Amino acid sequence: ILSTGSTALELVVIGEVGQDVTVPCHYSVRNGITSMCWGRDRCPNSKCSRPIIWTDGWKVTEQHSSRYQLKGDLRSGDVSLTIVDAREEDTGTYCCRVEIPGLFNDQLINHKVVVQKARISTASPHTHTSEQTSAPGSTSESSSTVTRTWPSDSASEAPHTASTPCSDPSDCLDVAANLQNTSVSLPSQQHPEHGLYIGIGSCTALLLILILALFLT
Fold it and tell me: 70: which residues sit within 8 A by CB, 6+ positions away?
């Protein structure tokens, strides 16, 4: 943010606690390298109020704390202030005053520095739970356990019996006939060779009776 006053510019610099905050300040060295100071207040009519660091343009000549440093290239006019390991109490107004020879020629820049606490995300991890509801009578399955019921062979092969008595005598006769047919046909299906033996024996008996009858005649 830039705003112009009658004698100085004003800038706003925002940083985070624990980080290095750089407050910019430059001047032109075409007319020569000169001295400057940083102060913890607005720029006064001369010098710096509550000075924290000074340089003659070649090296640092006065330093209030090791946390205030000039890391730029002084010979090229970079006199930016670096606040190492910034704290909340570093918030405030800083003055960059470059002393330029001549009456009221000093370059003045007021900076408003705001040091905020680092933002920490407190959002909990998102969880997603899915549920599957089975329709009545259907097989129930979950993600961890699958339960299935298969009919046994004996149940599928067992004969079906009526759960209610016969409502009509003819129905009972039909059922009895069906059961009788089933009981008679099963042995013949299981042992077809027995019927063949009986047929051969019957033919032989008839043949013997026919021969005996012819002999007697």
Answer: 53, 55, 60, 79, 80, 81, 82
Query: What tens digit of pLDDT does each residue of 45-88 get?
Result: 999 999 999 999 999 999 999 999 999 999 999 999 999 999 99
> Any idea which residue has 């020629």 for tokens?
105
> Which amino acid type is present at position 131?
E
Fold of 11-116: Immunoglobulin-like (2.60.40)
Q: What is the pLDDT of residues 6-53, one digit of tens each?
A: 356 788 999 999 999 999 999 999 989 999 999 999 999 999 999 999
Residue with tokens 């549920």: 131
